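We emphasize that the prediction below concerns an isolated chain of 123 residues; any contacts that depend on oligomerization or on bound cofactors are therefore not represented. The input was used exactly as deposited, without trimming of termini.
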Amino acid sequence: MKKISVFMDDYRSPPDGYVFVETIDECMDLLRNHPIEHLSLDHDLLSRTRNGLMLVKMMINEKLFANRITIHSANSVGGKNMYNCLKQAQKDLIMPHTIIVSLRPLPLKYFPPRVLQHYSDIK
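Result of the prediction step, given as a token string:
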């Protein structure tokens, strides 16, 4: 089965070639049913209680990961919490150390070309 790349956000549009999801339920469905090369996650979603941190905790509990995970949230506190939770899962040997975890906040409106290079290099 071909690996896909997934972009979860409720505001920004995905880079070319990415499967777009707006909710953690859609994202978990893809994690359960498809091999994922790159997963790019936002913290703040339409639901205040079902956010990116909740998704990360679900991923860790079910041991469902992508080869690369980027936290692109502009919410500095929420994004850092997601990143730290994933890094702790690596330290606790729940998530493999081979998975690359990046914290790369994206602006809400305009993506400068060099910012999108991170996504082009991963696809």
